[in-house]
């Protein structure tokens, strides 16, 4: 007997009545390549990095596309030790309705611990993963965060130094 495929982020957002647009593109996993395909700057994206705890809880870190994750800050935000964060594999992502290269902060895993960087609420319209590497979601960040009322917000991102002219 086959297990049913869990709902993906698109299904979850649709069920919640969130307003968004789906943009299809070739299978891409490198954020800069997705931006080229969509014609959007990296600063207008929210990337989501997925981890698991030793207890198999999914931890999703959502931050601006051009930022780097502060792993220790993420661990503190979810109340675990840094060494207890491990990258989520394809099997774990599949159980949350997602595939590598398309991770979204919204998932079918209702027990996922989601942390947005403190700068995300001010981004306005953004592009983020759809759960699949061949499409992206365009959504206002208020709709995105509204789909996750239990998500935390914390300073989990480091930003590149501004370029000098």
Q: Whole-Å distance between the termini? A: 61 Å
Order of helices and strands: HEHEEEHEHEEEHEE
Broad shape:
globular
Measured as a percent range, the helix fraction is: 10-25%
Secondary structure class reads alpha/beta
Write down how many β-strands occur, each being a DSSP E stretch of 2 or more residues.
Answer: 10
Low-confidence segments, ≥5 residues, pLDDT <50? none
Outline the structure in words.
- It is built from five helices and ten strands.
- The chain is α/β, with parallel strands linked by helices and 165 residues long.
- Strands 1, 2, 3, 5, 6, 7, 8 and 9 form an eight-stranded mixed sheet that branches. A two-stranded antiparallel sheet has the order 4-10.
- The longest helix has 8 residues, at 9-16.
- The model has no long low-confidence stretch (mean pLDDT 92).
How is this fold's topology laid out?
Layout: H1 9-16, E1 20-24, H2 31-38, E2 45-52, E3 58-64, E4 68-69, H3 71-78, E5 86-87, H4 90-95, E6 113-117, E7 125-129, E8 135-140, H5 141-146, E9 152-154, E10 157-158
Parallel strand pairs: 2-7, 3-6, 6-9
Antiparallel strand pairs: 1-8, 2-3, 2-5, 4-10, 7-8
Keywords:
8-stranded mixed sheet, 5 helices, two-stranded antiparallel sheet, 165 residues
Short description:
With 165 residues, this protein is of the alpha/beta class. The chain contains five helices and ten strands.
């Amino acid at each position: 007997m086959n297990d049913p495929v869990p709902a993906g982020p698109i299904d979850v957002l649709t069920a919640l009545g969130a307003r968004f647009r789906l943009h299809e593109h070739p299978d891409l996993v490198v954020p800069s390549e997705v931006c080229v395909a969509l014609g959007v700057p990296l600063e207008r994206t929210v990337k989501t990095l997925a981890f698991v705890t030793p207890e198999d809880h999914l931890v999703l870190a959502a931050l601006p596309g051009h930022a780097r994750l502060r792993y220790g800050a993420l661990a503190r935000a979810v109340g675990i030790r840094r060494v207890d964060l491990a990258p989520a594999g394809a099997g774990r992502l599949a159980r949350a309705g997602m595939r590598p290269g398309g991770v979204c902060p919204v998932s079918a895993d209702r027990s996922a611990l989601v942390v947005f960087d403190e700068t995300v609420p001010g981004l306005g319209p953004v592009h983020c993963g759809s759960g699949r590497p061949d499409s992206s979601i365009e959504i206002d960040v208020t709709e995105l965060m509204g789909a996750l009322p239990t998500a935390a917000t914390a300073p989990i991102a480091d930003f590149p130094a501004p370029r000098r002219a």
